[in-house]
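Request: Show me your protein:
***
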Amino acid sequence: MSVALAALVVLTVIGFAFLPSVFATGDPLAGVPADKLRPPGPQHWFGTDNIGRDLYTRVVYGARLSLTATLIAVTIALVAGTLIGLLAGTVGGAVDIVLMRIVDVMLSIPSLLLSLALVTALGFGTVNVAIAVGVAMIAGFARVTRSEVLRVRRAPYVEAAFASGVRWWTVLGRHILRNSYGPVISLAAVEFGMAILAVSALSFLGFGSAPPAPEWGSMISEGRDFLSVAWWMTTLPGLVIIAVVLSAHHLGHSLSGRNRS
């Protein structure tokens, strides 16, 4: 997959989320019972579901909830993980040891299992799903940020800034953070795809928005009872998720390669 194609897929899905009416003119909640379980065709690109709703329209409008949850999750993980890694790598000593042992514990728990535990405690809903997924991803960002901060922290220009009496928070923001954020941003692009998978998985299990709100994971869950007669109800939304995840991963790895070079 080329970088241009991956970017096109991601930009298209972002367009789905912010301008759904441009890509689909129908109502995602309105169904025509006479048109139920129609296969994909010129009139219904992705076919229709069991109550006659256009599946393509629901996928387009479902991008808003799914991507909103994903963006919230990645933002939580990026901000919290960066702060933890920055603090641990800069201060060092006992602070570093305590924070990294907490991170190690979080990394030892499968992220989906941790997300399930958190969303069970928080309750159902798209925002709660996003918070649960975001918290489960913090450890990865903290590890990468800490390693980059340790690398930059030993650079001569940072030592010179400290020796010249520059305030530590100025050095932290102007020198350390500015020169260590590249790999973290690349990780955010990769984790964006993983967050979509996690959000969709929790939605599939019923922790997302309540029906009939369109959400990618819940749409796949609704279609599993009709696999023998309407394969498109699960396959096509699933292919959309796969395309977005692969595109986000490709963009993330491309950014990572540029940062290393």
